[in-house]
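ok, trying the design again with the full structure, not the truncated one.
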């Protein structure tokens, strides 16, 4: 159905691309007959990450999957996170495993995000202006390496901190949310307090 993969879980159906849940086959069939614009609107409304970003705090917390396997995907997704990033750059996840992980995560009602295996030049302003991009997500280790200020001994260089602040400023200017990878609970709280919307 328009490229989406559907799977039954506990008697319900899910749209694995958007995490849409249907209690009955009748609801599923009704959605399949809707106009494409209405269907996308309903799917976006059911997206757990989008819902979290639209709350008063606008914050969400997620997890990172670096090992292949749908059992890993489901286990992580059932831990109460709003989203799970399937990391195909740093993880041992090939394209086929990524597609399976995305379906398994969405079937649990959690928003899947895919970290593609690429590190392009840092073009923040151009990326922030792209329609349809909702979140600018910072990988501090990758960003530090790309700008010549890697994280060494767990310490961020002042120029890396400035670059992270710049991401937040550009995101705000372009009405985008921000996300960041944290290495500990304390650091996650610190980033949340700094205004990041998505924290891992």
């Amino acid at each position: 159905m328009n490229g989406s993969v559907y799977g039954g879980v506990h008697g319900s159906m899910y749209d694995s691309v958007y995490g849409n849940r249907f209690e009955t086959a009748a609801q599923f069939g009704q959605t399949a007959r809707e106009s494409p614009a209405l269907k996308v609107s309903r799917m976006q409304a059911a997206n757990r990450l989008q819902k979290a970003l639209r709350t008063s705090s606008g914050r969400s917390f997620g997890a990172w999957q670096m090992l292949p396997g749908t059992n890993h995907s489901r286990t992580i997704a059932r831990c109460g996170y709003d989203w799970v990033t399937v990391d195909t750059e740093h993880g041992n996840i090939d394209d086929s495993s990524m597609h399976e992980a995305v379906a398994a995560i969405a079937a649990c009602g959690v928003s899947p995000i895919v970290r593609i295996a690429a590190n392009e030049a840092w073009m923040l302003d151009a990326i922030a202006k792209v329609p349809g991009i909702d979140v600018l997500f910072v990988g501090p280790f990758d960003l530090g390496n790309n700008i010549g200020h890697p994280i060494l001994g767990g310490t961020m260089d002042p120029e890396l901190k400035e670059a992270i602040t710049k991401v937040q400023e550009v995101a705000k200017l372009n009405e985008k949310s921000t996300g960041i990878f944290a290495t500990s609970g304390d650091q996650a709280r610190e980033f949340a307090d700094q205004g990041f919307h998505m924290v891992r």
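Keeping the full-length input from now on. Confidence is low (pLDDT under 50) at residues 1-31.
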